Amino acid sequence: MNDFAIGSDILDIGSRKCDLRRRNQIAPADHPPFLEIPNELPVPPVKNPAEFVRNNFASACGNADAKQDVKFAKGTTTLAFKFNDGIIVSVDSRSTMGAYIASGTVKKVIEINPFLLGTMAGGAADCSFWERNLGTQCRLYELRNGRRISVASAAQLLANTMASYRGYGLSMGTMITGWDETGPQLYYVDDDGTRLKGRYFSVGSGSTYAYGVLDTHYRPDLTVEEAIDLGKRAIYHATHRDAYSGGINNLYHVTADGWKFIHAIDVNDMHYEFQEEKRNTMQE
User: Fold this and answer.
1) How far apart are CA 202 and CA 9, in angstroms?
2) How many C-alpha atoms does 99 have within 13 Å on its Cβ side?
3) Catalytic residue numbers, as ranges
4) 66-75 pLDDT, tens per residue?
5) What local confidence, expressed as pLDDT, does residue 39 receive?
6) Selection from 236, 186, 184 nearest residue 206 by Cα
7) Pick the residue with more confidence: 190 or 57?
8) Distance, CA of 44 to CA of 70 (rounded, Å)
């Protein structure tokens, strides 16, 4: 009886030797090879990748059912708003699949470049991959033209990419925000290729609660301290009412000098802080 031994192919995973071996493998004639181009998605190893993706990952909004085999259940709260002194981006950090909490420490703000931020809502893999891809496109634009890309153009690049993959099952509702030659800019982009410009947006299962706070307290002339507090409170109230949102509140402030990370606060700590504030107000 032979002793069990770990094969060298297992030990080589992640190494240059493994990459070379995978590139040299010849795929069957009726199966398209996996793409080996950087920043490109591998296609499913089936005869008709497009049909396979549509049947298994078709996207449907709300409670709709596209008869797809894989059904997504998502939950998050992200928001961003412009004011006179810049832009506030505030998000939670809970990753869920329905009632299952996969993680409580997800970084839902993607730092595309020093002047550009993107948020994650929908499929974490879709948002992370395509916004990193957007970062590559923005850097190439800068190298070719000798200047930074505008926020509007960056959002349009992402919207064009999403439009080209419409119907393929991507799940993404993101905000692209930053500061360019025209000042602070904020755009919403989703997996249908929709691109909207606005003063403030909130995306995710807790967005209705966040919008309630923003609609009540938002003003363009907020001070920086008031704007930070508003972003913080909107996320807190969303996580308090929405079971699919929670974890840590990560907050960024974007100015003409670029984005700045402000804080990462556990929403449980915010709960006790605001409850104490509420009790003190009621006693006065």
Assistant:
1) 46
2) 0
3) 76
4) 666 666 666 8
5) 53
6) 236
7) 190
8) 15
- Cα–Cα dist 76/22, whole Å: 37
**Is it the case that residue 241 has pLDDT exceeding 70?**
yes
Most confident of 38-42, 64-68, 124-128: 124-128
Rounded Cα–Cα distance for residues 131 and 117 (Å): 9
Concatenated DSSP letters of 125-171: HHHHHHHHHHHHHHHHHHHHHSSPPPHHHHHHHHHHHHHHTTTS---
Token pair, residue 284, equals: 């006065």
CA torsion through residues 263, 223, 82, 85, sign: negative
pTM higher than 0.70 for the full model? yes
What's the rounded Cα separation, in Å, for the pair 88 and 199?
A: 11
Contact of 115 with 258, CB cutoff 8 Å: yes
Q: Which of 208, 263, 185 is nearest to 77 (CA)?
A: 208
Please say whether the dihedral angle defined by the alpha carbons of residues 50, 52, 57 and 58, taken in this order, is positive or negative.
positive
Lowest mean pLDDT among 13-27, 222-236, 267-281: 13-27
Q: In the predicted model, what is the mean pLDDT of residues 226-238?
A: 95
pLDDT of the residue at 2? 46
* Residue 218 predicted with pLDDT over 60: yes
